[in-house]
Amino acid sequence: MNAPSYSPEQAALEGRAFEAVVIGASAGGVAALLEILPGLPADAPLPIVVVVHMMPNRPSHLAEVFAQRMAMAVVEAQDKQPLEAGTVYFAPSGYHLSVESERCFSLSCEPPHLFSRPAIDFVMASAADVYGPALVGVLLTGANHDGAAGLAAIGEAGGLTVVQDPGEAQVGVMPREAIRQRAPDLILPLRDIRHLLAALETTLEKR
Which residues contact 1 (CB under 8 A, 6 or more apart)? Predict the structure, then answer.
């Protein structure tokens, strides 16, 4: 009898359970997110936290844009707000977003990190401390090195690390730097990242 055939993303999920997803993106990120987030079910059993670099001193309308396209609840993250399953949280403009040990958000006005506030590294590293191996980190297209260290922290904590294929990314600088700093578990095109997120839902529902 032939052994069952597993895709790389299926093999990476085998025997694992996850409690949260953190996604980071910069240049080209909105288009990439529109390929991977819509279609997830309203009752998704984990929170998804998204940080996208944006122009300073301008309000973000990302939560509104994605709320019109998703079955999941979509909100802008608030200070002290608990993370809840079935919800996508977008980092607000002008603040660094972190995850606290009580599994709630904190917002801070520390100086920009790699010219960015919110910074992907802040939320990824803090979430890695809280969730450890139960965290999935996804880094998408972008034009600077923010997110590479944060994704490495997720990997060092035992979490699953995923990088968009740099050859497919609108801007490959960010994914290439993440790969350079620490080899991720998976390097995938957007269609397979979308499949991975759908498989996370199935994996958790069958726990």
Answer: none
